[in-house]
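Hi R.,

Here's the chain you asked about this morning:
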Amino acid sequence: MMDERLRDLIERANYVHVATLMANGSPSSVAMWAGMEGEYVSIFTGSAASQKAKNLARDGRVAISIIDFENPYRGGQIRGHVASTRHGAEALAFMDTLSVKYTGQPFPMRTDEGTQYLIEVDWSRYAELGFTHKPE
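And the predicted structure, written out as tokens:
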């Protein structure tokens, strides 16, 4: 089960970095929006032609990192796998929810090609360091 503090970070407008595996086994990472759907971490891609969609179709394992936008010394890591997907209008409705969370507006790029990935968490870790963020 995921730590509630980590869940809170995902439920707020913090960016996640999602790492998937290329065909040759090398990692591919992309910054994304994310949300929670019950116990699943959920992400979206607008096209089956995207690299992450191709990677997830071949191998559903993912690693996710997240940093608190307001306090970069709070964050966590997740390892999991794609448990299920949603497509078309159902996926776009999810993307609208994410877009409103991050931008205040529905998702502007309307497409029926989108896919929502529901990721089952296999392992997670929350961390918080006692630093104050004061860059020079």
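DSSP finds three helices and seven strands in the chain.

Let me know if you need anything else.
M.
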